[in-house]
Amino acid sequence: MSATHPSPEAARRVAFAPNWPMRLALLAIVAYAIWASSRLGLSWDRLGHGLGEGGRLLARMVPPNFERWGLLLEGMLESLQIAVLASAIGIAISLPLGVLAARNLSPWWISGPVRAVIAVCRSLHYVIVAILFVKAIGFGALAGTAALVVASVGFIAKLFAEAIEEISMKQVEAIRATGAGVMKVLAYAVLPQVASRFIGFCLYQLDSNLRNSTLVGIVGAGGIGGTLFAAFKRFDYDFVAAILLSIIALIFLAEIISGRVRAALR
Amino acid sequence: MNSMTSPSFGDPMAPLRREWTRHTPGQRLSRFAVWLVCVAAIVWAVRSIDIIPEFLADAPEQMADLLIRMWPPNVAHYYPEVHNALIETLHIATLGTLFCFILAVPLALMAARNICPIKPLNVVAQFSLVASRSVNSLVWALLFVAIFGPGAAAGVFAIAFRSVGFVGKLLSEALEETNHGPREALRAAGASWGAEMLKGVWPQVQPAFWGIALFRWDINVRESAVLGLVGAGGIGLVLDDAINFFQWDRVSTVLLAILAVVLVAEIIVTRLRSRLL
Amino acid sequence: MSATLTAAPPPATRLEHALEIRGLFKEYTAGKPVLKGIDLAVAAEGITAIIGPSGTGKSTLLRCINRLVEPTRGEIRLRGTELTGLRGRDLRLARRRIGMVFQEYNLVERLTVMENVLSGRLGYVPFWRAWLRKYPEADIQRAFMLLDAVGLPEHATRRADALSGGQRQRVGIARALMQRPEILLADEPTSSLDPRTAVEVLELLAKLTAAENVPVIINIHNVDLAKRYARRIVGMAGGSVIFDGPPEALQTHHLQAIYGGEDWL
What we know:
The complex is a heterotrimer of chains A (266), B (277) and C (265).
Chain A lengths: L7 H5 L7 H20 L4 H18 L7 H33 L6 H16 L2 H12 L3 H25 L3 H9 L4 H32 L10 H10 L3 H29 L1
Chain B lengths: L1 H8 L15 H24 L4 H18 L7 H34 L7 H16 L2 H12 L3 H25 L3 H9 L4 H32 L10 H10 L3 H29 L1
Chain C lengths: L1 H5 L10 E13 L2 E12 L3 E5 L6 H8 L7 E6 L2 E2 L5 H8 L2 E4 L11 H6 L8 H6 L4 H13 L15 H14 L4 E5 L7 H18 L3 E4 L3 H7 L2 E6 L2 E6 L6 H8 L6
Parallel strand pairs in C: 3-8, 3-9, 6-7, 7-8
Antiparallel strand pairs in C: 1-2, 1-4, 4-5, 9-10
Helix pairs in contact in C: 6-7, 7-8
């Protein structure tokens, strides 16, 4: 026995249980990184070359060129319009969809399909949706708005449904017991419980719609993104820098404002 | 105050005619103002946005037409072109996530106020993280296509640079939430800064670290699918081609492939997270 | 006395005091000193207990010794080494000579007991050894010996957050002794423990430090425990030492002076 098996005394003297899964995983990650880099044609050579190119690009970007500020302003305003409209329509659609998707309020044969619709809205990237809309209904702000409406529905309706599923059903029962109808139950027992969270989701989505609306123009769906893409194609890198700075400033501003509003709501 | 004193002098019936309102006048005013701003913003957007009415009227019909042309998806296109592009997309997402840590970890350490006591460094790191986050990955891709030329390399760097801000922010928050006690104990034992980080801080942030990495990888899989639209490699390139040649049955194949990969990525992440935490 | 302090450090064996503190001041905010000129010399063996009301600077005093808190002015000498001016590597080399046990144990909860004990060697081993967990064999053997000594031989590979409070403090003691310290600082080591465990932990601390010949400075709230285990009692109030003597000399009027009032006695 003791000749073949280590005595309990000796077994106890192992200081560390070797963590083989972790070591193997780390090794695998490193090996993967090297292999995949070579497959994608990433090499030190290319990196060095890229660094030089990057330096030249940066040099061409400064100083930012705000000469065509009219074009810039027009694009920014259109992005803002897209964001506002997409948020408004998205919220309007999400309200009923969220209620319908909540499994504690709707029967399964309604909530199931509605949840599926929301899931599809969520899983497609908004830029892909924007391309499809551009191809279907033409270039311009309409396609961008429609794409962001889809994205908003996917986000708000899902979180709204989850919020409704977490409410206390006791209050719903109490209002039902007074003989209130469906809409009255919604207004007096459901909405008061979820209103503040719902407003939080909407603010967040307005914020991200604003970010995304500066982008959908790249695929021709309106807003500053189109101007940006065109400037890139024409190698107007100083104008590109101006546009990027304006976008960052706008997003900064929006973040500050929505932070203030959220603090005020609390 | 007023309502307490005035009845005794004037109208003795006043207490009986109490009026119930849900909000005080001030509250009502501010609520009204918020609504006014919202409505005004929407009205402004509707009135000035550049939407062609004919397009709007036509839209449902056109969408239906597009969907009909997409159905049924032509699965024959899947192999090898779509398949290879899909694999490339996954490589871009994974490598981008791995590489982002090279920048994100030092920046997170610099941004965490309990790790780096030097105020100016905190501010510099915070600013870099915010800048990385405010530039969308597609815009990063445009920049890197200009640097590296079209191809997957630009995609990897775009994903990495966009992820730095996200990962760095969450990581620095996790660092700031660590318990100071163990670090103090190690310092009292004469540990160097590196040893203190390794044995006192890293074990505390390790779960958060893996969680953040997985979370970002999941997002990056979605994001890398569109990078090809600006020439940064991956399945977006195939999608763009198919759309430009109006091969709608092929488009739907690509879309289904993307959906499947996104779904699988989400399932993998959920599984791994529940096992890690 | 002052002659020996300013002279070059004589060989350690001939020193009667392990630690000498002179004129130690600490101000967290300027003009409001927490420590008002502490003078204290600690013998090379035995337990010295510091008692006093909360907020009187006991904890600050201990943390000034190993410079977790930066003293405002004063001198602290560990077997002849002046500690207050040290920086960087010299400071770390000095700190590893001073063990510390904390009120909240301060273990790294997600590491195993063994790694927590071995982390007492972090001042000695190079970074790569710590990273790869390749501690010298002698360190590992000593860690096992200490775990046996504190009564946790079976817990080496368990995670620290799986232990009870008393067990954690035992690990804390093992970690501090792992440094082979020349002095051990214990900051309220039993305040988070129930009365019975507190006695057991103190008993262990006294036994092990006596066996290893390590002097101990302990902050403690429980006066009875202080009297039972300490060779010397230092009473602090308002940032100054107001009693210093053997436990037998500590009388009721001293306690009244230290803690104020008399109803609680």
